[in-house]
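Bug #77: duplicate submission created two jobs. Keeping one. Sequence:
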Amino acid sequence: MSFRTPVTMSKKSLSLIVALCCSLLLSACGGSSGNPSSSSTSGSLTSGTNALTGLPGTNGPVLFVKVDDSGAGHPQVGLASADVIYIEQVEGGLTRLAAVFSNHLPPAVGPVRSARISDIDVMAQYGRVGLAFSGAQTLFLPVLDAANIEDIGADHEPATIYSRDLTRQAPINMFVDPTALLHKSIAVEKRTIVTAHSVGWNFGALPSGGIPVSGVSLKWPAASYQASWSATESRWLLNFDGATDVDNTGAQLGSPTLIIQNVSITPSIYHDHLGSYTPLSQTVGSGTGYLLRDGQEFPITWSRPTPQSPTTWTLANGKPALFHTGQVWVALTDQPPVFTPASTR
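Kept job's structure:
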């Protein structure tokens, strides 16, 4: 890829960003660790453990990046470093990703695309996050402005932070330097962006009662994902629209934990320039879904009473649905998955 020269930073600079962010948050919250927007994490987490992955790491400022998920937008850049990735339905039945970063920041993430109404509720459970995006529909902009986010989108930032890949065509050629973006937002502009904390899930040993499966197929009206269990890599390897889902380095995307969250998807009042209505994925309330980990699937329920509440995930026996440590993918869908039974069944 041929980018304009990005701004890069050292690990020391990243540490300063995290420290400054925590300081700003404690000041804003009066030092109360009980505030869900503070830098506190759940009691099950130890010092030096990232709250979103359960792995050793830091709980830095939470950055959401909207990423193109059309066929032309692949291969994507920087997703292997994300803590959490949401698959959302957008206009025309296509999908778009919301990638969450709080620990490892890659040199670039993208292709960066515009925000949608479903993003507001997804982000609300994290607190006041930073949102990196390329713009939004005119009617939706006032709603986005009123949301509890820090708008650090491309409309307000220089080309040294949001650059164009000259080997790709617009609008799927914009990429963001997340380190430079957070440094400018927090260290320079003194914006308050929440640090990572528990948003409802727990990590732990493999629960009992799972059904062995070798894979699953997920469909949206104009997109599909397939996930196959790899015992060698201990993660679900992803295909997108029937092809191996690789990033710009050639590595296949995937994760140890895949959540299928059954949600209601209905038309919103917003639409694109072609008149296609923007769907709204309802992630507040309650519903059913599936936890996939360790080559098994578990029917689960999810509950989130308010936009600010964490999402809790529960097994059929009433116990917490324990995630495997590592990156988490959450597929927001209203279509039933198709599981492939494991050969040992």
